[in-house]
Amino acid sequence: MDAIYGRRAVRDYTERRVPRSLLHELIDAAIQAPTALGEQPWVFAVIEGKGLLQDYSDRAKAHFLATFNPGNDPHSLKRDQLLDPTYNLFYNASTVVVIYAKTGWQFAATDCCLAAENFMLAAHGKGLGTCPVGFAHAWLDLSEIKTLLNISDENTAVLPIIVGYPTTAPSPVPRKMPEIVFSD
To answer: Which domains does the chain have, with CATH numbers?
Structure first.
């Protein structure tokens, strides 16, 4: 319960890199998630290095801006931020873990989301911060990017997650009361 109530999206990281042994621990915790019929349809791409992630951030922002149709989407409010050359989608972290779903399984994306939550809660328990990054999602799902990451083109990007050592602990965000409907 402490991890559930204490984990927050972190958007400011120190220079300290996450040891690979710790990344393996977090991924091991992730794969303990429930999975429909035991399929375990996940693939984890670990991207490390601030310079590489800055380059990926710039490219992902350009792709998002070129392909996004704002309509009434609230993300259009972020357009100015995305146009800012100093804004880094990965908040200057040195590690991003992208969870990809193997294709051909009806519940693959759901299973990968369950693994993502385990990953983030385990990271919090180890004193690390995490933040899911939706703006990079479509770019990380491009064939040429999956090739760069040694990910089969048949796999689908589900969720990129920043992981690192936070500079500060974010404050809790007030939660709205949920709509709960009981059916008798």
So the answer is: 2-164 (3.40.109.10)
Nearest to 82 by CA among 65, 70, 98, 69: 65
How far is it, in rounded angstroms, from Cα 53 to Cα 62? 14
Chain centroid offset of residue 126 CA: 17
35-52 per-residue burial string, b: 16 or more CB within 10 A, e: under 16: beeeeebbbbbbbeebee
In 122-150, which positions are buried (b, 16+ CB within 10 angstroms) versus exposed (e)? bbbeeebbbbbbebbbebbbeeebbeebe
Q: Above 80 in pLDDT, residue 76?
A: no
CA nearest to 166, candidates 124, 129, 126, 119: 129
Across the beta sheet with 95-101, the strand order is 42-48, 95-101, 156-164, 129-132
Rounded to two decimals, the pTM is 0.91
In this model, does residue 71 exceed pLDDT 80? no
3-state class (DSSP) for residue 39: coil
Say which range, 23-32, 72-81, 127-136, has the weakest mean pLDDT: 72-81
Mean pLDDT, residues 129-136 = 93
